[in-house]
Amino acid sequence: MYRYPVKYGEIVSACADKYGVPDEMIFAVIHTESGFDVAATSRAGAKGLMQIIDSTNEWIADVTGEEVLAERIYEPSVNIDRGTWYLSYLYRQFGSWEVAAAAYNAGYGRVSGWLSDAKYSTDGKTLDYIPINETRQYVERVMEAVSVYRRLYFE
Q: In terms of C-beta distances under 8 Å and separation of at least 24 residues, what long-range contacts does 134-143 make, across chains too?
């Protein structure tokens, strides 16, 4: 269980309820993105537990009519709320947690393109093949973590 912690559980549960995202999906993304390091910053400038980049944070604030809160993006409550909202948005767009995870990593536009390309998707809804190795591995890690979190804490 120590390898799959449930830190920030109250925030995660509140955001899960608020946006309709399974707790285990949120924990899996945090686990994969930052390893629960609240101060994590990637080379690409992604920040905090759920690794939110500035442009995504600004877009979410614009769409939701909320403040950008750029100076607070490392705060668990802000970061988890924004990341969970975005996961919910991606799920509503794509109808699949696997595809939502791919878009969380590779971007909405790139994944939309893959879904419309028969080389990557035979039905336009699922990804038969993810052409970027990093994204393919990311989706595998997230979905494995979802399975572990579900088994350990949510069954």
A: 134/105, 135/102, 135/105, 135/106, 138/32, 138/101, 138/102, 138/105, 139/98, 139/101, 139/102, 139/105, 141/32, 142/25, 142/28, 142/29, 142/32, 142/101, 143/28, 143/97, 143/98, 143/101
Alpha-carbon distance of 12 to 32, in angstroms, equals: 15
Residue 130 phi/psi, 5-degree rounding, is -105, 115
0.90 cut: is pTM over it?
yes
- pLDDT tens digits for range 94-112: 999 999 999 999 999 999 9
